[in-house]
Amino acid sequence: MDEFVEVYTASDITFAYLIKAQLEDAGIPVQIANENVSAAYCLDGMVPRVLVPDARAEEARQIITEMQQASPTDGGDPDNEGQ
């Protein structure tokens, strides 16, 4: 089984769930790490992280890029481009 790798970090759990739904619609298994961290308590490294199997990471990143281009206010980390 593939190792899960991070393809996106979000400052907003809502956007992380939108990404998860979009990736799952494409047939990509998704996990969200740190999903129970409250926005009020987000510390460096403790933000929602979207994880997918390593073999599907590039496909997932392409879908996320398309989502970001369609929505300029994505709630994500602006430094996350190309991750």
Q: Radius of gyration from the CA trace?
A: 12 Å
Beta-sheet strand percentage? 15-25%
Separation of the first and last Cα atoms:
22 Å
How is the quaternary structure best described?
Answer: single chain
Number of helices: 2
- What are the low-pLDDT stretches, counting only 5+ consecutive residues below 50? none
Q: Which sequence of SSEs, written as H and E, runs from N to C? A: EHEEH
The rough form would be described as globular
The figure for the number of domains is 1
Structural class based on helices, strands and sheet pairing: alpha+beta
Strand line-up across the major sheet: 1-3-2
For the record, the CATH architecture stands as 2-Layer Sandwich
Give a short account of the largest sheet.
3 strands, antiparallel
Number of strands: 3
- Mean pLDDT across every amino acid position: 81
Question: How are the elements arranged and paired?
Answer:
Blueprint: E1 4-9, H1 13-25, E2 31-33, E3 49-53, H2 57-70
Antiparallel strand pairs: 1-3, 2-3
Structure description:
The structure is a single chain. This protein has 83 residues and is α+β, with helices and mostly antiparallel strands. The chain has one domain (4-80): Alpha-Beta Plaits, CATH 3.30.70. Helices cover 33% and strands 17% of the residues. Strands 1-3-2 form a three-stranded antiparallel β-sheet, with helices on one face. The two termini are 22 Å apart.
Keywords:
2 helices, alpha+beta, 83 residues, globular, 33% helix
